[in-house]
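User: Continuing from earlier, I have the next pair ready.

Assistant: Great, send them over.

User: Here they are, in order.

Assistant: Folding the first of the pair now:
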Amino acid sequence: MDMAPPIPPEQLAILASESQGPKTVSIVIAFTALALVFVLLRLFVRIRFTQLVGWEDCFITVSMLFSVAQAALQIKQVGWGAGKHQVLVDLPSTINSLKYLYWSILTYCVGFTFTKVSILTQYRRIFAVKRARIPIYIVMGLCVATGTEALFTFAFVCTPVDAFWNVMKRPAAKCLDEDVLRYINGTLNMVTDLLIAALPIRVIWRLQLVRRQKIALIALLTLGWFVSIVSIIRLHSLYVLSQNPQDSMFYAAPPIYWAAIEMNLAIVCACVPALKPLVVQVIPAFASRPSENNSSQRSGASRSSKLSRSFLKLDGNDRSFEGSVDAEQGSAGSELRPITALPPVHQRESFTRHVRGTQNMATKQYSGQSRGT
């Protein structure tokens, strides 16, 4: 068997200078730190301004923990040679890098699923009417199902499992086609991103709000479109990797940092709507309503002012107006009304006696006035 000629030192130096490792580490750290800042700000708003921490906040916190774990694993991948040309990486380093890749894929699957569930849980709180919630439950079930499928298919992609990273065991192992799995799971991931981004559009557009408010609400709740774009870019980087198996360590860098961008950008998008109370504190003008030019528009804005609060108060501080939207009642001629909150259970009996007493008093006064006339 002919041996490949040794590579001249000058060429090795050029190949070493082309390493994508430093770039990959910088991107991973930057986007993970950005997402962490947004999550901490979100929790600060919940505790400081609303004194209310919901399930969506718990889910996004869990997702952030998995994002930090993924970042640590991705940095270890780079430390063992990911981003360098294959000729510069020995076999033990390749095996170690693939081992950290294996675990980073699993953390990605779990963390991204928690992010999607957090967003959908927030939708569920805002859209409290049953008919508006049914699509949310369907998409949530789809996200959990696809996330679980991706987790287990990658966890057991090879038999034995360690054949995924130990290339010496690959010839005797039974492994699924990793490229096909990446394309399938990446496509399913992108589809669920699009569904999550599209869910609020129909409900918001049927509200009796001025057009600018509708567009602002849609933009606020559908930031996931940006994540879908990143998903497409990540899928393309996986395709490029599959087309260059002879230098897989070098071409593994873009999928690493695009996965970090995708996961952390999703966390940021999930946190942005919850930061409104903080933004209002910094920029009070942000809370103002746009004025209209004609009386009919002013009338429509007046009727829907309470409705706009049900969507703009995404901090969970005003439960009286939460979930007042029925997706099927937005047709012409029908008026959507906010739900009036009942007193707490322990106060309802005294509240009822108070209402009845007021009604009886009003009846007696009316009767006396009638006899007097």
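And the other member of the pair:
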Amino acid sequence: MYLQSNLQDNVFCAIPNFWDGFFEKKVWTDQASRIWESYKKYEVAEENKRLKELKSKKTAKGVEEQKRLQRDKEEKIHEEGTTESETWNWLTFFEENFLNQLNGRTTRSTKYPTVIEDKCSLLRGRYCRTNKMRRAQESTGTTQIDFLIKSIEIQNDNVDWKNMNIGAEFTVSPSTSIRKKKFLQLSRCAREAYCDQPLRRFMHGFLMFKEEFELWIFDRSAAYSSGRMGIIDSKEIFVRALCSYLLMSDEELGRDMSVLRKNGQSIASFTGSDGNSDQLFEIKYDPLIQSTTLATRGTTCYKTRDKLTMIEYPWSRSADNADVRFMKYARSVPGVVKYIASQLVYQTNSHLENLDLSGTDPWDLKADDYNITQGSNYHLMTLPSLERKRVLFRIAMTPCGRKIDTRGSILEIVAGIRDAIKAHQGLVDISILHGDISEGNIILKDLTTDDNSHGMLVDFDCSVKLKGDVAEDEELFLTGTMKFMALERLENANFLKSTIRRTYRHDLESFFYVLVVGSVEYESVGEGKSQNLDVWCVNETSSCYPHKLALITQLEKLLDMFTPSFKGLKELAKNLRTILFKDGTFFATPEDRGSIYRKMIMAFDETIEDIKAGRIINPTFIARRYQSTIRAFTRRNLIRHLPVR
């Protein structure tokens, strides 16, 4: 459900120049064509031979027996009506007799000769069939993939997601009945690969149905496809695609090229950033922070080995990186991470710029599998230019911290949110609005001599300059993280179909939601007992707004969802609700912003004193999200159908 919501309006099918953009005019294109020509010559001869054998049979029974014998032959062809088992046998035959000739001159076939030039492309990948169950991101607990392509250097079939280059889903069902299901399964596998390869730039995949196939590519902006093609009618494209996938370099496969991995070390290099000399940072392999959704900004953060620096990799919507710009503005604000250096790493234009999306509407995943809906002119005009171009930056900052939803104590979370609010006030005082307060943008840290903040703000991609108490510029799209978004913004988007200028109060309301979500979702409470607020993060404001409004106006129902370790924070939640909403329906932004900041910080201070005095217990809880499955879709959503009023 969350994956489908995440991909809604982010899937583009039947792109007319998909094949040309990803498979033509590459260093291996001619080699893939030569393999196809060799295979075609073999298949035509084999088909003629089989047809001659069938014509020699005088009875229907004899014909059927001959067909059975042909299917059992060592020589395989891919023909109409091929079963799944026969498809696997054909793939094995094709790889062993045609593709493996590219492993070296000694393996060239005399029976099925392929023209191999002296400087031909060698195989870089190999097939791997798997029915093993893999780690999953959703409550089903498992993710399965039918077929993958991995590096040829990996000899065993027990690969994991970090080794997967390309994934595929096979079925003998017709595409019209199962296309959406298989697409979502392939998307789930792509998401798993991104979780183990968080800096991956893009990923190829394909679907194979009874009579059709479809080529796909996934990146952090969307999923794009060639459209469905007949396996028999478009056999050349199908065979050449299989060849191409095994010939692609790591860069052409979309794998990360920015981190140098050598002798067990992972090195992030900043070359002459901001006029400084080159800087090298050794980072820990496992990310400190990473996104678990597919179509997202995909921010990933790593700690350095010396634990002094954090390296952030955000996918920005603009080459004019707001994250860097506002971090520099905020150097003097306590409780905000400090900028060190930055560098542009990659742009999606590198692989998307030649795709023709002008006549391609997004696939409405809420409708029937085969139905492609018509988008509005506004949607089509703005979507490719504003949303489909992403820029990957690398930013070094200090200090290091940890995610707010990891194992810790209640006191750490309360003090961390309070200090993040103080940092937010410091930003507003210099006319900066953070604009995306969420659990992913608050880190907890140990106290230092330079900064005694328990919590710090990160990620300024949605930040804006303030004019008075409101954003200087209007939003074209509803940006931010849906789960933590203020009710007034959701209300406008839902009923008026427009955005409103963001204010400091919207961000303060988001801090309240961080506390509430943490109190409901962070602690592991045993199977069958856990609850969540995922209804707040669906992709449609028409569903998100009423669910959130109902729980805020009927607060006791929300407080009943607090897990045992967080029950002592119920009074704090009540006080914050009163400060923000008064009688429960006040959404406006007060002119006296100092008053609301003072009241909220005081409420946190009183709770901290109660914890220190023992009036509220301070247990160390076990984090639910890192005990088994990773959380569902909670990251940044971009609602694209809202015109500016």
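Worth noting for the second one:
Residues 133-141, 368-386, 627-645 have pLDDT under 50 and may be disordered. Residues 18-247 form one domain.
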